[in-house]
Amino acid sequence: MDYLSKVAKLMYKIHSITIMSTKSEKFLQIFPMVLDVDQLPPVVNSVIDGYRAPHYALGWVIPVDEAKQLFGETPEDRRPLNYYNEVVLAEGWRNVKEKDLNFHRPIAIIWDYDTPAADQQEIYLMLHIGTNTNRGALARVAEHKEVLIAKSMQAIGFSPEKRAHLKWHQL
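Above: the chain's sequence. Below: its structure in token form.
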């Protein structure tokens, strides 16, 4: 089992137990685990119906195998996430970024939450391009969403069909 697999499996076990024990049914009705790309989440920690809004990230959840196909093999002296973030995504973003828009490049993280597949043994990454961290970040996503999505997809190397899989995911 490679390094990424070991870390992902451990994180998934820990996070699954935490999620199930802490999020009530009412909380999940107010703040679903997944929102459509056009349904902006509230700013994190905003209080709605007595509950603090959770952190959401706008992105794609993909199997690690798909990431390997997109980004190529990781050099032996590098860890996969570091390589994807510091080399592949950073270079891709530099090549497509518009100078006048203040966006951060796509970031790859291990996805240790619920996955879209029936096979819970498969390891996933999230490639996220926006968050609800603060009003400014959320406003930039709302105002320039289509440019952000197009440039991010180009930097990642996604085909146009992949746009349909972009969602807000609760972290």
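The chain has one domain: 3-170.
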